[in-house]
Amino acid sequence: MQHLPLDDHGLLLRRTAIELGLDDNWLARMVRLRVLVRIRHGAYADADVWRRLTPAGRHLLRSRAVMLQYDDRVALSHASAHVLRGGPDWGLDLTNVNITNLHGRGDRVQAGITHHRGATFVTDVSRFNDHWVTAPARTAVETAAGLGLAAAVCVLDWTLHQGLTRREELELYAGVWLREWPGSVNLPAAVAASDGRSESVGETRSRLILEDLGFEPEPQWEVRLPSGRVAGRVDLLLRRQGAMVEFDGQVKYGRLLKPGQRIEDVVKAEREREVLLEELTGLRILRLVWGDLSNPAEIGARVQRIVAQRRAG
Question: How far apart are alpha carbons 62 and 9 in whole angstroms?
Answer without folding.
Answer: 11
